[in-house]
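Thread: ABC transporter permease, structure

OP (GT): Posting the sequence first so everyone is looking at the same thing. Length is 506 residues per the record. Can we get the structure tokens written out before standup tomorrow? I want them in the notebook alongside the other entries.
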Amino acid sequence: MKPASAPLNTTASRWRRTTGGIALAGLLALLLADMEIARSSPGQELLRMGKGFLAPDFFATEQLGKALANTLAFAWQGTALAALFGFFMAICWSSRAVRGFAASIRAIHELFWGLLLLQVAGLSTLTGVLAIAIPYAGIFAKVFGEFLEEADPAPSHALPASTTTISRFFFARLPLVWQAFKAYGSYRLECALRASAILGFIGLPTLGFHLETAFREGVYDQGAALLYLFFALIFTLRWWLRPGLIPLYLIAAVAWAPPLFTGNLDTLVRFITVDLVPAPLRQSGGLLELSQWFAMLWQQQLWPGLWQTVVLGLAALLLTGILALLLFPLTSPLFGNRASRSLGQGILVVLRTTPEFFLAFFFLILLGPSMLPGILALALHTGAIVAHLTGRFSETLRLRADAPTGINRYAYEVLPRISPNLLAFLLYRWEVIMRETAVLGILGIHTLGFYIDSSVAEFRFDRTALLILATVLLNLGVDTLSRTLRRRLRLQPGHGVSASNAPARR
């Protein structure tokens, strides 16, 4: 009797096919992407920018202290509110409705929330705080909910049957994950500081507002000073963020910028009940007029925006993977020496600390408006994160005493063993890449954010709502596809989802 052949669809073959499929899609996206360099002399502009970074002017920008205080105040208040409501949603994480609500609000970028809130609350503290708090609540809910699901159930089962649900939660479940909650909370505060600074690009008085002004006017020494101050704020977080000081920081943040609603309640009601309603329905039109309005919007904005967002996101995903493969040896103990690893770690820290939005803005100044600045920005930032996580994972590998060195060690000993984890990290970050891709349109890149920003400028908020809904559905679709692939391939990114490596859960 002829022995049965081994099934072809093994996990390894599925992993290789998935990797090849992603690479092929990314390569096709690169070929379709607009990679034009519109600036006539990017080298000269880069030289001017370099001179500004070598001689920063810390005293020319007025209201620098106020901008820094606003950045901190928005971030602290937004993170605190998000952690509170995210915690309550995490307690009910088994509810499908709660999961769907959390996924929906986190799929909308902080800048898009800011654009909507500007129409109701104006350039106020409330706009800045809620623009951070709303999407971050969805992120906190997801991460806290997963921490609770992954916690050891044994202590809870060991309690007497008469123990109340509240007591069981606070005494047998919460203590197991409390340290992870605190670690992730500090990472999310770092993200909130970046988000708070970026909100300056839509007019809020944070560091990003003055940074954008300085770089657009070509005053690079002032812009460099602002960027260095931002870096100092992030890099020193571990020293000034102390648990005992958190209540004082929150009190100071609220005292400096109280998140009060000073707008008109009628404006809020009109915005929700009138401005967000599709124009044909406001004009007493029927289904025919509504379908014609949607078809026009699909042809002119929805389809072009979705297509460009997907193309740019896939191209950035491919380049992210390539950069991660090239950069992770910079921090891996399996390569180089202590000096080279320290230098490599410094490079990766700067790249992953600088927000993608800032990087895209700098590249737009140098290269002009095309997809190239967005692709480079997303790949450099996310590639540094994935390289860092992959380097951390490589610390767990144990090589033979006679293992080869140099390129042979990389190609034959390390790369085959870290590749599944690197793919898992990329799939975890795919949703974030697509989310950031959409928002880069605010800078002028023709993704969905470009049309959202244009509709806000034209006060066509019905179009804004539909375009934002498109970004939500796109991000949810990418997230679902990513989770399906990870489950099908049985990919678990080692240390990548621990609290100490929180960027994988961003």
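GT: Both are above now. Quick notes for whoever picks this up: Residues 214 and 223 are 5 Å apart (CA to CA). Residues 1-8, 495-505 have pLDDT under 50 and may be disordered.
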